[in-house]
Amino acid sequence: MFGRLFGLGGASATAVDYDETRRALEKGECALIDVREPGEFAAGHVAGSKNMPLSRFDPTKLPADRRVILICLSGARSATAVRQAHAAGRGDVAHYSGGVAGWRRNGGALSR
Predict the structure, then answer these.
(1) What architecture (CATH level 2) is domain 2-105?
(2) How far apart are CA 99 and CA 101, in angstroms?
(3) Burial class (CB in 10 A: 0-12, 13-18, 19+), 26
(4) Is this model's pTM higher than 0.90 or not?
(5) Which backbone phi and psi does 13 adopt, to 5 degrees?
(6) Residue closest to 66 by CA, chosen among 28, 36, 30, 95
(7) Does the N-terminal or the C-terminal CB of the chain have fewer CB atoms within 10 Å?
(8) Hey, where are the domains in the chain?
């Protein structure tokens, strides 16, 4: 699943869908990093995600022990952050392009 998505560097290789993200989280195969601002994160986030706001995003501080999936509200900020991570040499970083809004549309629960 992730072999074709990570480490390829191209724009099409950086996005993962709901089912891929959900399965990876359930299996503990990834770290989910929410790049929204702290107030947005506090209002509702995917359980198990960690907050690293794009306004202070530092790709060198991403977890190094597993693959990383970035998420935001709709996919724009996480796409920006994934480009920054790739530029910093982290080819194992992708983003959930549906964002938190898409997570909810797909039936995913949010935590507060």
Answers:
(1) 3-Layer(aba) Sandwich (3.40)
(2) 5
(3) exposed
(4) no
(5) -85, -5
(6) 30
(7) C
(8) 2-105
Question: b or e along 33-59 (b: 16 or more beta carbons within 10 Å of the residue's beta carbon)?
Answer: bbbbbeebbeeebbeebeebbbeebeb
Find where tokens 């195969």 sit. 29
Query: Could you report the per-residue pLDDT of 55-95, keeping only the tens digit for each?
Result: 999 999 999 999 999 999 999 999 999 999 999 999 999 99
CA distance 108 to 79: 20
